[in-house]
């Protein structure tokens, strides 16, 4: 009964709010991206996986299905419009917060987030993939079936461009695939280790770093950076390697090698590439001599 009452309330609010849409809402835009952008401003306990799964649904439906995944300790709801006050007792038991969150339009001050929001990993992956594919912001609709028009003479006909294959939103993993992925392989932003500011600054400046200001925990290992668009995990080395003599360089490289090899195995076990970032060509050459299979890059940004 409570769920039925809540669903009825959401449909009522949706109908009321969409009777006079805001001009921006009337503009053609991809509702899936609009939902992801709206959800990116909220904290989620599951990294946004529920949001990505339900992003094609209307926002009120998404809000109802993913409400339990919201970080309720960091969100405050304010019924400024007064519409939620008409909720039945059964619906109110489920929370005025759901009523406020599910409103199709965004009302300033109704949803207040405490602290800084780090975009959920799953949401950021979906949005980055969308931008990488260069998809249009509009939904693609099938062309209506009509009788073919008489063909013009070949001299007057303009060649039709071939479809680029980039006008569709990239596929999102379905629930069975998500269940099959090992939980420890889902990247989780975690605070930098303290005590080495220059090292952390170098990792934060890495081009296309998806989580500057954070390390990333994958497969129980804390990596220095993650580039989602290429699915690459990084270990950044800022040692002044070239200032040591040759014997010390070789010793240092041998000592660090087993850990680098372990990180590579952990990353690849979860489907990621692994790159070691170093500050000098000498450091790169020393590592490659010991293990040619390690991908080593000289960082010219730090």
Structural overview:
Keywords: Signal. It comes from Pyxidicoccus parkwayensis. InterPro entries: DUF6310. This is DUF6310 domain-containing protein. The longest helix is centred in the C-terminal third of the chain and has 24 residues, at about 245-270. This protein is elongated. It has helices spanning about 1-15, 25, 30-40, 50-55, 60-65, 90-95, 95-100, 120-135, 175-180, 195-205, 245-270, 280-290, and strands spanning about 75, 110-115, 190, 215-220, 220-225, 225, 230-235, 275-280, 295-300. The model is unreliable at about 10-30, about 85-95, about 135-155 and about 160-180 (pLDDT under 50). It has two domains: about 1-115, no CATH class; about 185-300, no CATH class. A hairpin with a 4-residue loop joins strand 6 and strand 7. Helices cover about 40% and strands about 10% of the residues. It has about 300 residues and is an alpha/beta fold. The strands form three sheets. A four-stranded mixed beta sheet has the order 6-7-8-9. The protein has a three-stranded antiparallel beta sheet with strand order 3-4-5, covered by helices on one side. It has a two-stranded antiparallel sheet with strand order 1-2. Helix 3 packs antiparallel against helix 8 (about 120-135) and helix 11 packs across helix 12.
């Amino acid at each position: 009964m409570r769920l039925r009452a809540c669903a009825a309330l959401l449909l009522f609010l949706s109908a009321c709010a969409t009777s006079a849409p805001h001009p921006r809402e009337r503009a053609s835009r991809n509702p899936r991206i609009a939902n992801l952008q709206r959800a990116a401003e909220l904290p989620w306990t599951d990294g946004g996986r529920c949001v990505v799964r339900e992003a094609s649904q209307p926002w009120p439906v998404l809000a109802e299905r993913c409400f339990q995944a919201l970080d309720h300790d960091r969100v405050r709801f304010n019924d400024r419009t007064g519409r939620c006050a008409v909720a039945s007792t059964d619906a109110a038991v489920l929370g005025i917060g759901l009523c406020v969150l599910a409103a199709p339009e965004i009302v300033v001050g109704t949803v207040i987030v405490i602290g800084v929001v780090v975009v959920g990993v799953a949401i950021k992956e979906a949005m980055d993939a969308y931008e990488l594919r260069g998809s249009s912001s509009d939904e693609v609709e099938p062309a209506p079936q009509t009788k073919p028009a008489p063909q013009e003479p070949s001299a007057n006909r303009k060649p039709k461009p071939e479809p680029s294959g980039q006008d569709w939103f990239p596929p999102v993993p379905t629930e069975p695939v998500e269940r099959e992925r090992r939980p420890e392989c889902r990247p989780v932003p975690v605070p930098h280790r303290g005590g080495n500011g220059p090292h952390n600054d170098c990792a934060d400046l890495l081009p296309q770093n998806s989580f500057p200001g954070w390390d990333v925990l994958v497969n129980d290992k804390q990596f220095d950076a993650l580039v989602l668009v290429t699915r690459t995990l990084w270990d950044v080395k800022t040692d002044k390697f070239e200032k040591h003599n040759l014997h010390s360089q070789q010793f240092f490289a041998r000592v660090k090698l087993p850990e680098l090899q372990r990180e590579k195995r952990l990353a690849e076990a979860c489907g990621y590439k692994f790159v070691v970032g170093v500050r000098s060509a000498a450091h790169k050459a020393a590592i490659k001599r010991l293990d040619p299979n390690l991908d080593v890059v000289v960082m010219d940004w730090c």
